[in-house]
Write a structure and sequence with these properties.
Blueprint (H helix, E strand, L loop, with lengths): L1 E8 L4 E8 L5 E4 L6 H10 L4 E5 L5 H4 L2 H8 L2 E5 L14 H4 L11 E3 L4 E4 L2 E7 L8 E5 L2 E5 L2 E2 L2 E2 L9 H12 L6 E4 L5 E2 H7 L1 H4 L2
Parallel strand pairs: 3-4, 4-5, 5-6, 10-13
Antiparallel strand pairs: 1-2, 2-3, 7-8, 8-9, 9-10, 11-12, 13-14
Length: 210
């Protein structure tokens, strides 16, 4: 069973998630786009040696900025969709050249997943669902009834599709894919409030218009 903690980081208020395996207390971090005092203290308390994965839903700077630093402190493996890995070393793709004072230092992921492939945190399976639209390699990570959706779907809206490699047609197809999931899910988005799949099917105009 996974325990979820949310932290707001970066000037863009990115949601960074700690997902903790109850049994082993090993944990993963999703989208570490910046530090916050609370996040810093919590990771120190948990112990860097128990950090197993750094999971990236996509490659924009506000979701990846601290990934390499965390890896160097912990030896955790960085995980991303296979065709999004280039974002980690290209400041034009990750937008750091446009929005930060200096480009992010290039790095690369350790685990490159394809659509439908999985990693495990303790006994919990975490599966990648490729959901392009915000970027070409944007992905959701699904475990049990939880969806970590990055900037694909957020409460009653979706991520921008006008940035480099973005596509509104891809976004529509990704929303169809998410909406086709059976049952309800708790959605943990890259920005904004936590929501549910059933809520989005009713109140998200982008899903209603596909």
């Amino acid at each position: 069973m996974l325990k979820i903690e949310r932290y707001s980081v970066s000037p863009l208020k990115t949601n960074c998630y700690l997902i903790i395996d109850d049994k082993t207390q090993k944990f993963a971090i999703i989208d570490p786009g910046g530090w916050s005092e609370k996040l810093d203290r919590r990771v120190y308390e948990m112990g860097y040696e128990k950090l197993v994965y750094i999971i990236l839903t996509h490659g924009h700077f506000d979701h990846i900025k601290l990934a390499k630093e965390l890896q160097e402190k912990s030896k955790a493996k960085i995980v991303i969709f296979k065709n999004e890995n280039e974002f980690l070393s290209n400041s034009n793709l990750n937008l750091s050249s446009q929005f930060l004072c200096k480009d992010l230092k290039p790095f690369s992921a350790d685990v490159l997943l394809s659509d439908g492939e999985s990693i495990y945190l303790g006994d919990s399976k975490i599966e990648l669902m490729h959901t392009p639209g915000h970027t070409l390699g944007s992905s959701c990570f699904i475990s049990e009834n939880l969806i970590f959706s990055g900037d694909t779907i957020m409460k009653e809206t979706v991520g921008r599709t006008d940035l480099v490699t973005g596509s509104y047609l891809d976004m529509k197809n990704s929303l169809k894919k998410i909406a086709s999931l059976k049952g309800d899910y708790i959605i943990y988005p890259g920005h904004g409030e936590i929501t549910t799949l059933n809520h989005e099917k009713v109140y998200n105009k982008y899903i209603n218009n596909i």
